[in-house]
Amino acid sequence: TNEDLRRAIRERRFREDLYHRLAVLTLSLPPLRDRGEDVVRLAEHFLARACADYGVAPKALTAGAFAALRAHPWPGNVRELANLMERIALLSAEREVTAEALGLPAVPRPAPVPAAPAAASPAGGASSLEDAVRERVAEALRETGWNISRTAARLGISRNTLRARIAKYGLAEEGAPPRRPRPPAREAPPPPAPVAAPTPPPPPRAAAALRWERRRVTLLRAALGVAPTAEPPLETSRAIEVMVDKIRSFGGRVVGVSPGGVVAAFGLEPMEDAPSRAALAALAIQRALEQARREDEAAPVATLGIHAGEFLVGQGTGTAELAEEARREALDALDALMERREPGAVLLSAPTEPFLVRRFDLREAGIGRERAFAIAGPERIGLVIGGRLTAFVGRGHELDLLLGRLESALRGQGQIVGISGDAGIGKSRLLHEFRQALVGKQMTAVVGRCRAWGTGVPYLPVLDLVRQLCGITEADSAAQVAEKIRTALVEAGLDLLESARQVFHLVGVEREAEWLEALEPEPTRERIFETLQQLMLARCRTGPLVALVEDLQWIDRTSEEYFASLAGLVAGVPVLLVSTYRPGYRPPWIDRSYATQVALQPLGPAEGSRVVRSVLGANRAPDALVEPIVRKAEGNPFFLEELARNIKEQEGGAPLLAVPDTIQEVLLGRIDRLPAEDKRLLQVAAVVGKDVELPVVRAVSDLPDAELFRAFGRLQGAEFLYETRSGPEPRYTFKHALTHDVAYASLLDRGRRALHGRIVDAIERLHPDRLVEHVEALAHHAVEGGVPAKAHLYLRQAGLKAFTRCAHREAAAYFERALVALAALPENRARAAEAIDLHFELRNALQPLGELDRILDNLQRAEALARELGDQTRLGRALAFLTDHSRLTGDQERAVEYGRQALEIAEVVDDLVLKLRSKLYVGQTRYVLGDYRGAVPLFRWNVAALEGERKHQALGFSQLPSVHSRTCLVWCLAELGEFAEGIGLGEEALGIAEAEDHAFTLATACAGLGSVHLRRGDLPAAIPVLERGVQLCGTFGLPLWFPRLASDLGLGLALAGRAAEAVPLIERAVAQSDAMRLVAGRSMVLTCLGEAYLGAGRLDEAGASARRALTLARGQRERGHEAWAQRLLGEIALASAPRAADARGAFAEALALAEELGMRPLAALCRLGLGRQARAAGDLPAAQAELETAAALLRALAMPFWLGQASAEASEPG
How many Cα atoms are found within 13 Å in the side-chain-facing hemisphere of 327? Predict the structure, then answer.
């Protein structure tokens, strides 16, 4: 019992008769803190047992760890010590366990004993000797300024002995926390002190404001299974106690206990690697319960589940707590996990897997609602994940440099290389590939690593090198380690008595070091350096030495000084010393003449694509999937790999570029290490945007200028931001887009919304007369700030701004978002009218993109709203737009009806813009139907109405209506053979478009002028204009115009004898027309393709294309295009000797249609075809008549390209 039963009897809390019945033999066990060296022996025993139980390499406690164990008060006694050793066995990656690794909390110590002369004691008494020793130690410490090494050397004792005496006598440096002296032998307790009057409690502190933030937390649930007849409180109480102990020993907090299990949270307070701690706690629970079942078969078995996620955590009262909603969410996830009912298993939810896959072997768990995993094996070591490394790209130059420096070292010219780069940039991978290149070569390569937790651990990376040079492994016993050290020292030609103790001390073979202590004084740092240098350089006798040291940004001071001393010796020996580090650190030896520093840069887009494809697999990596990843990762290989893995694991394959948890963990770790004020400023800057305007931050951060500039300086120094514009109002940008995304997401939604709203107000105050410049930012912040009125206003303005710049896709996105914002405003007539106008503007943006399905949906909504409002003007506009849409999609009958209604409304309301739009679209419908003479007056009316200033006004059209109307008129005139007027109008349209420099309008003008030149046969004039139009389509993303321009250009190239270029161009035009479901004019595109196939000698394909064109033209009532398809069939038949007789019928049908529709150029070409067919059939009189008629028509029309052919045929003797 831990109760004083005699006192309990006196206090009548325990029956005296029961005491005498039990008290046969009474043993009094002192607390662990009073048992002297027992704590060290027990610690070694528990550590060895835990290492054996978990199958890990044996670990040894250092002298510093022994001192920490002796000094700790051990309130939990032996159980606390056993749990600590088990935790060290699992968590510590090092063979030597230091005081820092133990992580024992500081405990209050008695005040330091003043170092005054001790009072006289009785002669020869023990206390006088103790006092004399104590005073001698204290005096030596004062004289050396508490330098342990120098004090130990002065006293002639080891440093461990000195530390033990400091602890024993409770000595402490002035200003340092007091040390607790080692307890003396137990004596009778002193009489109780008089009870002091109670001290009044301090006044309560004001409650801290509750602060909420999203934090990454890992939940562990352990559910016990018991026999059906057992009573859970009796059967599980011991198991619950064990589980609670294990959870707490790994830093978790129990947040729920029941007779059937526990729930714990890891990471409520900031904690590194919470998922791994939870997993290790689960494994410890698993092992403890297995051991209990070996002793008692009725002991319970546990099923353990782990779920990691981002949860809302509140802090303000000193203890962080999960929000109730977050708690329920986490428990639901754990419940789903535990449904698998795998007793004894450690199950992981799918979101937890990425955090543990690098450290543990995992397997798929059983069937359940969600995908899950289970821990199935030991820790994973190395760079390889999933069985293979990703592609090594973009570092060939740096690898060549390392190999080149190695060649210099081989010649006895020692070299130093420093490799600098951000986290994840590929420093470790570069060294890995370099080491692979060394395999099979006669040289020694050793690797040392600095650790984030090891900045205060002397010689940490140096010891890695020493162990490898001596051949020491994790499985070696202390005796084997000592023997390997002796062998290495002898091989290096070093005297064992002079050097062994130094290396034994460093490596942690304390017993061997103590044996030599009497033979050799305490070594100085200089002697240690000298021994280590000789040990390393001795390897150069048998071949070059390559020493690689990673992550110098975490190097301890002693190791840094050692490597600096080593660097001074390598110039004339075959040594290559390579180190890696992050920006901000600079090795003190890098300025030597034989040193080279390399800064690893981000990978280029092509290299980044190779990394992504190596993760996704070549078959799963289309450009549309790869390119967004490459842009997001900004050339960081780690980010590239993690983003690609994240997408690879998604169903479907669409790139949902949320930042993977693994990347968030890295970036949030950096952000959370910032001081609170700097972290808050970084979050504010992230809300402002990736590019950060100082005046806006100043307006919303409430920081004085001096502090604001200092904080930005610190964020620059930490490389979160960099300056893009200097001066009194500097501008900054985030170094990485992913850092911006993570900092932004670290704010709660409510806080983000409030900041966005304040930013809108700030920009409006800062730039009242320049809002157009900032309209995109205003729109973004108004949307995210939940200010729908301003969001609608600025989104619409941003859309109009993008539209005027021919950024049609961006404009469409702004208009769609403006409609969403508008829907959040109160319903009224004004809102409905605004919605109709937005639908029209969205239609104008979608039209150049050929998004015909989306256009129809918007126009139908606008029509319904206009009818509901009874707004005739807006209804007329909707009907006019529907006319155009029906024409483009091939519904000519409906187009005619919509056009009729639109024209009637335009006349009734007498609205100029509506008249222009209605006449334009009705005229285009007539053009498609082949009614060129009926379309001309409509287009002429528009041209006449758009003179003067209106010639350069958009008037709400997708392009300048003055240019569009002229182009449509030019097409009609070209078909009618009015070339002179058509060319004049086409050149005028091009001049207007060039003056406005509007890409869509320019493409329209090129389509008109190029077409009239082509119909006339003036190929030198047509081809350059059409090429310009096609280029505009590609540059500015104008898919609607591409089929028309590309097919005309292809026809011109084919006529010019360049059919090989024409065919692929027109094939693209056909494909794009099909993709857009653009029916109007598709038959003419197919006719042009047939002409190109004919010019290339591909008669079968030409015939198929011509027949398809004819069928489509007849189906759509495109009579003019039907005539051109018939004429092409005649040309194809004429070129094919067996079918030459069929040509006459085709030419005759085409001629009849051409003459009916007034298509004089086509009629002339049909006459030319009939003449050639008659000559081929031997009917020379008919041939002569047709050829002469054709020549006369071509001459009158000034069509020189075909006139030459007709004249030559006519003059050719029969």
Answer: 14
What is the CATH number that goes with domain 1118-1207? 1.25.40.10
Q: Look at residue 1088 in the predicted model and tell me its pLDDT.
A: 97
Strands, E, within 570-623: which ranges? Answer: 575-581, 595-599
Rounded Cα distance between 1058 and 1023, Å, is 12
Q: Give pLDDT, residue 177.
A: 47
Q: Do 825 and 845 contact (CB within 8 A), yes or no?
A: no
Token look-up 């096609």 returns 1030
Beta strands in 474-560 (DSSP E): 545-550
Query: Residue 1002's pLDDT is what?
Result: 96
Q: What three-state secondary structure class fits 583?
A: coil
Q: Which helix (H) or strand (E) holds 732?
A: strand 731-734
H helix or E strand, kind and range, residue 912? helix 912-928
Max mean pLDDT range (385-394, 672-681, 897-906): 897-906
Q: DSSP letters of 1062-1078?
A: HHHHHHHHHHHHHHTT-
DSSP for 20-78, written as a single string: HHH-SS---PPPGGGSTTHHHHHHHHHHHHHHHHHT----EE-HHHHHHHHHS--TTHH
- Fold identical between 929-1038 and 1118-1207? yes
Q: What is the pLDDT of residue 637?
A: 87
Asked whether the predicted pLDDT for residue 754 surpasses 90, the reply is: yes
Apex CA 1: angle with CA 24 and CA 10, to 5°? 80
Cβ atoms of 555 and 588 within 8 Å: the answer is no
Place of tokens 């005539």: 1123
Strands 731-734 and 691-693: antiparallel
d(CA 850, CA 846): 6
Arithmetic mean of pLDDT, 874-899: 93
Could you count the other beta carbons within 10 Å of the beta carbon of residue 369? Answer: 11
User: Could you tell me if 277 and 266 are in contact, meaning their C-beta atoms sit under 8 angstroms apart?
Assistant: yes
CA distance 1069 to 1051: 12
Which of the following CATH numbers is that of domain 32-102: 1.10.10.10, 1.10.8.60, 3.40.50.1820, 3.30.450.30?
1.10.8.60
Cα–Cα nearest to 1000, from 968, 1027, 1038, 971: 1038
- Domain over 211-379 is classified CATH 3.30.70.1230: yes
- For tokens 């990703």, name the residue: 390
CB 1110 within 8 A of CB 1125: yes
Rg, Å, the chain Cα set? 43
Q: Looking at the chain, how many residues does it have?
A: 1214
- For residue 540, pLDDT beyond 50: yes
* Domain ranges within the chain, ordered by starting residue: 1-28, 32-102, 211-379, 396-599, 605-668, 929-1038, 1050-1116, 1118-1207
In the predicted structure, residue 223 carries a pLDDT above the cut 50 = yes
Nearest residue to 248 (alpha-carbon basis) of 206, 287, 199, 284: 284
Give the architecture-level CATH label for domain 396-599: 3-Layer(aba) Sandwich (3.40)
Burial letters 714-746, b for 16+ CB under 10 A, else e: bbeebebbeeeeeeeeeebbbbbbbbbbbbbbb
Determine the average pLDDT of the residues in 247-261: 87
CATH topology of domain 929-1038: 1.25.40
How far is residue 143's CA from residue 1119's CA, in Å, rounded to a whole number?
Answer: 111
Which of 67-71, 150-154, 248-252, 1160-1164 has the highest mean predicted lDDT (pLDDT)? 1160-1164
Instruction: Determine the longest span between alpha carbons in the chain, in angstroms.
Output: 154
In the sheet that 575-581 helps form, which strands lie side by side, from edge to edge? 444-449, 545-550, 575-581, 415-420, 595-599
DSSP string, 624-687: HHHHHHHHHHTT-HHHHHHHHHHHHTSSS-----PPPHHHHHHHHHHHHTS-HHHHHHHHHHHH
3-state DSSP call for residue 388?
Answer: strand
> What number of other Cβ atoms are within 10 A of residue 254's Cβ?
15
